[in-house]
């Protein structure tokens, strides 16, 4: 009997030693952050390791830790408010700033040096890079913000070369962005979405686009690069806007319209190319009457 008790005690001691070794080797920690939240301040967490393995950008894998609220992953140089929720499977990269009461869904990637304002909710499988996001925003599933824009030129040999895309995307306060929408970073100026603007699903916004406040972009809108849009502009479903066009404030565009030149007067527009709405309706009526006359 005494021998059996001794064997059980030894087995328990070995198990405890194994668990201590596992904890010592693990890069993850379940403790809370030790830093106070402030913009620009890094976080100091437990779980540091002497392992020098790193990726191509020089980031050590062992410097990523487990966030206490939600189980997500964060880099120790990121500045995250203790009230933020980072769900399991989400990751916050170095030098990013996450404000108070932010909710980051599973599968989301917050790239290096991204700033997210307070009370912003981010859905699943979102990718944020080279951008800032304001307060009280809602970013739905699958949104991508801050990737390179579509900019190329042809050299003297006929080869297609990429134009540098080095600037950022800036999302204002109280902005809502629908699922699977893409917003490119800027090349010669930042891409900007103004405060209180609402963007539907499957919208493409090219590099250098500047959109004013309280605008509404319906599903499948496509805005080419370097477009400037004023305040209180509404774009109906599948509206297309060509590059380097300016649209004044308080313009509404009917669905499936195409803007090919500047719109300088407020009002309603429609058609391809977009013209004042009454002119477009006359065009449609004339075409309808002409087609009826041709019918035998």
From TrEMBL:
Database matches in InterPro entries: Hexapep, LpxD, Trimer_LpxA-like_sf
GO CC annotations, alphabetized: membrane
Gene3D superfamilies referenced in this protein's UniProt entry, alphabetically: Hexapeptide repeat proteins
Record's keyword terms, sorted: Acyltransferase, Lipid A biosynthesis, Lipid biosynthesis, Lipid metabolism, Transferase
Superkingdom of origin organism: Eukaryota
The keyword Methyltransferase is annotated on this UniProt entry: no
GO BP of this protein: lipid A biosynthetic process
GO molecular function, one term: N-acyltransferase activity
CDD domains: LbH_LpxD
Protein name: Uncharacterized protein
Organism of derivation: Quercus lobata
Lineage of source species: Eukaryota, Viridiplantae, Streptophyta, Embryophyta, Tracheophyta
